[in-house]
Amino acid sequence: MIILAFALFIAVLRSLPGPVFFPVRLLAIAYADFFRGIPTILLIYILGFGVPGLQLAGVPNGEFFWGTVALVLVYTAYVSEVYRAGIESVHPSQNAAGRSLGLTHGQSLRYVIVPQAVRRVIPPLLNDFIGLQKDTALVALLGLVETFRQSQIDVAGDFNFTPYLATALMFLLITIPMTRFTDWLISRDRRRRQAGGVTA
Amino acid sequence: MTAALEIQGLRKSFGKLEVLRGIDLEVAEHEVVCLIGASGSGKSTLLRCINLLEPIDAGRVTVLGEEITARGVNVNRVRRRIGIVFQSFNLFPHMSVLRNVTLGPRKALGLSRAQAEEQATALLDRFGLAEKRDEYPDRLSGGQQQRVAIVRALAMEPALLLLDEVTSALDPELVAEVLDVIRELAAGGMTMVIATHEMGFARDVANRVCFLDAGQILEQGTPAEIFTAPREERTQQFLQRIVDAGRL
Ligand SMILES: Nc1ncnc2c1ncn2[C@@H]1O[C@H](COP(=O)(O)OP(=O)(O)O)[C@@H](O)[C@H]1O
Ligand SMILES: [Mg+2]
C-alpha cells in the first residue's frame, strides 16, 4: 500500500509541467534511476546491516525493519515507472479536454489522467508484486546471515544448508500460487476488454 | 458594444514552421463565424490558441474586453468561459455521460453535485440524450458522443464556443444530428467560431465566413460573398476543389 501510494506520488511529480517544476522532476527521475540501478540485495545489505550498525539514536534498529525499508524504496522506484508509462499512455487530447473545461493541471491529472492510467497498469503492477513477494526472501536472508555468522562463531566449519532449503521451499509455496493468480487475473482482464468492458 | 472575441496580429510557430502568420479577427456577440480552408491551413491551431491550449508567439486575444493573452492571466478562469469541441470528441472514457458533463461544472465552477446533475440532465434532455445519462462513451454512436461533447462544453455556460471540425470523424449518416444541434445553438444566439469542411452548413449557419490560407485569413465575407463571388484566386481554387469533390 505504501509502495502504491508513494510510487504514484513520484510518477505524478515527474509529470508536472513547466520550468518551475524542473527541480522536482529531476529529483523524481534521480530517485527512480538510483533505486532501479542499484542491486536490490546490495541495498538490503547496506540498509539492513549498515543502519543498525550506526547505532543511531531515535531510529529503529532491527535489520528486518531496514530490510523492509530497502524493499519499499526499490519497489517504489519500479512501480513509479509503471505508473509513468500508464500516465504517458493516456492520449494528450484527454488532458486538452480536461484543461479546456477550466480544470487545473492537478484536477485534470486527478480526475481524467490518473484514473485511466491506473486502470491500464493493473496487470504489470501485479507482476511487480510477485517480484516483491520473492524479494522479501532477501530480507529474511538478513536474519539468516545473522544466524549464519553466529553459527560460524559457534561451530566454525559446520555449514548447515537446512535453513536455506527450508526458506526456499517456503517462498516457492507462496510465489507459485501468486504467479498463477496473477496470470488468471491478467487473462480475466483481457477477456473483459475483449468483451467491450469499461475501458475503451 | 464590446466584441465577444478580438484577435490581433496572432502568430504561432511549431519549431521552424510558422502555422499562423498574423491573424486578425473580430467576432461580435451572437455572431457565428465559420473558418474554412485546406487541411493544414491552421484552423485547429487558431482555435487552440484562442482558448490558450497552445501558447502564442505574438499578438493579442481579447475575450469580452479582457485581454487573455496578457501576462499573469489565470488560464483556468479564461477557459471556463470558452468552450471547445474537438473533432475526435475526447470524451472521458472512464466516466458515464453524466459524469463527463458534470465534471467541469463541479470541479472548475464549484457547483454542488446536485446542482450540476440537475443542469446536466436538463441539457441532455434538450439534446435528446436523456436516456444515455448513465451510459459510458464507448456504448454511444459517434453522433451521440459528439453531442455529449457539445453538451459537456455547454454545461460550462461559455460566452464563446469553438468547434473544430466536429463532424469530420463521423459516418455520413450521423453528421446531420450534430449539425442540427449547432444550428439550434446558433438560433439561440450562441457566439461561435466553427472550423468546418461542411460548406453547405457553413453557408446556412454562418454570419461570416473566413477563408484561411497558409496561416492567414486571405478573404472574409458573408457566405454569399465567399461562396458565390470569391475575390481571391486561392479561394476560388479551394472552392473549386470542394465542388469537384462533390461537397458543395
Ligand atoms: N503540435 C504540433 N506540432 C507541430 N506541428 C503542428 C502541431 N499542430 C499542428 N501542426 C502543424 O500546423 C499546421 C496547421 O495545422 P492545423 O492547425 O491542424 O490545420 P487545420 O486544422 O487547418 O487542418 C500543419 O502543418 C500541422 O502539421
Ligand atoms: Mg484541423
Question: What does the model show?
Answer:
The complex is a heterodimer of chains A (200) and B (248). With 200 residues, chain A is mainly α. Chain A has a single domain (2-199), classed as MetI-like (MetI-like fold, Orthogonal Bundle). Helices cover 82% and strands 0% of the residues of chain A. In chain A, helix 3 crosses helix 6 and helix 4 packs antiparallel against helix 6 (105-154). Chain A is flat. Residues 196-200 of chain A have low confidence and may be disordered. With 248 residues, chain B is an alpha/beta fold. Chain B has one domain (3-244): P-loop containing nucleotide triphosphate hydrolases (Rossmann fold, 3-Layer(aba) Sandwich). Chain B contains 9 helices and 10 strands. Chain B has helices at residues 43-50, 75-81, 97-107, 113-126, 142-154, 172-187, 199-205, 223-228, 233-244, and strands spanning 5-14, 17-27, 32-36, 58-63, 66-67, 82-85, 160-164, 192-195, 208-213, 216-221. In chain B, the strands form 2 sheets. A 6-stranded mixed β-sheet of chain B has the order 6-7-8-3-9-10, with helices on both faces. In chain B, strands 2-1-4-5 form a 4-stranded antiparallel β-sheet, covered by helices on one side. In chain B, strand 7, helix 6 and strand 8 form a beta-alpha-beta unit. The longest helix of chain B is centred in the last third of the chain and has 16 residues, at 172-187. Chain B is globular and about 55 Å long. The two termini of chain B are 35 Å apart. The interface between A and B is medium-sized, with 21 and 28 residues. Bound molecules: adenosine-5'-diphosphate and magnesium ion (MG). Adenosine-5'-diphosphate (ADP) is lined by residues 14, 19, 37, 39-45 of chain B.
Quickly describe the structure.
The complex is a heterodimer of chains A (200) and B (248). With 200 residues, chain A is mainly alpha-helical. Chain A has helices at residues 2-15, 22-37, 40-54, 63-89, 92-100, 105-154, 162-194.
